[in-house]
Amino acid sequence: MKYPGICCILLLSAYSVFGETCQKPEITASAYVTEDATILTNVAFTTQFTLKCSNGVKDISLYAECEGKSLPAVRLSTDNKYQVSWTDDVKKVRSGDYSVKLYDEESYAALRKALRNGEDPESVKPLAVVTLNNPGVYQGPWINSELLAVVLAVVVSYAAFSAKSKLSA
Questions:
Q1: Which letter, b or e, does each residue of 148-160 get, where b requires 16 or more Cβ atoms within 10 Å of its Cβ?
Q2: What's the rounded Cα separation, in Å, for the pair 67 and 133?
Q3: Who's near 66: CB < 8 A, 6+ residues apart?
Q4: Residues in contact with 102: Cβ distance below 8 Å, sequence separation at least 6, in sequence order
Q5: pTM attached to this predicted model
Q6: Using CA atoms, how far apart are residues 168 and 46, in angstroms rounded to an integer?
Q7: DSSP secondary structure string, 87-137?
């Protein structure tokens, strides 16, 4: 190698470009939650968001954490659009707000280290937090239509036989 100084400068400049962290992140998010679970066993949660950094950093690898689950944030396009999706059992799902905490590689490594060492994971500050609202999951009517039809048939039959027996007597 004739130019070790140039190689070092190129390596350091590449590190500074790829190793930058997002400063003052701004998130624009939308969300979707399965609301009709009459025939489903799992409820799907999806949040799609755009990340804007004040220092112009793009193409960051993001990770998410929600309700104790670690999830990857999938990059959808080069203009910093991401998506986080997961499913959960219908019986375990609650209505209300879910906080999806987003971490870059550095803070996600710190989160995993805190979990491994038995430390409080809340001590690791996320890059940003996306709130996903679940209005509730419809699991069908309280009484099945078949049961209601049988009950109504019994009531109508009883009323008809009672009226007939009063007329006959």
A1: eeeeeeeeeeeee
A2: 13
A3: 45, 84, 86, 98, 99, 100, 101, 132
A4: 27, 51, 62, 63, 64, 73, 84, 126, 127, 128, 129, 130
A5: 0.69
A6: 66
A7: EEETTT--SEEEEEEEE-HHHHHHHHHHHHTT--GGGSPPSEEEEEEE---
Q: How much is the pLDDT for 4?
A: 54
Map tokens 């990059």 to a residue.
75
Q: What is the mean pLDDT of each run of 10 residues along the chain (169 residues)?
A: 49 48 86 82 90 84 89 86 91 89 91 89 88 82 82 92 85
| C-beta of residue 100 within 8 angstroms of C-beta of residue 134 | no
With tokens 């805190």, the residue in question is 114
Provide the pLDDT for residue 3: 57
